[in-house]
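Subgroup meeting minutes
Present: P.N., E.W., G.H.
Scribe: E.W.

1. P.N. recapped why we're keeping a running log of single-chain structure predictions: easier to compare across weeks, and new members can see raw inputs and outputs side by side.
2. G.H. added today's entry (133 aa).
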Amino acid sequence: MDEIWSSVRFRKAAQAEVRGDVDEQYSGPKAGLHPIFDKVASIIQGFGPDVAQYTRRNYVVFSRRNHFASVSPVTRSAVGIAFKMKDRPFTGRLEPNKDVGGGSFSHLVVVKSSEEVDAEVVELLRAAYDAQG
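Output recorded in log:
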């Protein structure tokens, strides 16, 4: 199964389809949020070759062995970055997640610009990625 899935997932046409779905999520009034998604996705993909990206209708999930992060436009002016983080307290920007990523992610950071994807967000993404290793 893995060999079949890998050959499908890495076909150029399959990658274009995924990109098209992401472009649909960030179109119209949410088009200004696309650079935020691009920055987050680039950071996550930089963690290692074992990162997989799965586009759902309203959000994108990133997985290693299991899902560890989800990115979704939550309003016309903000993107939600959700994480699976056991035993991490909710503090500052890190709040309980209720809606992003189908409800399987515990924590959420909401950002309104690419500049808000700062060292704190990168650390949270990395911690969620490392927890799935």
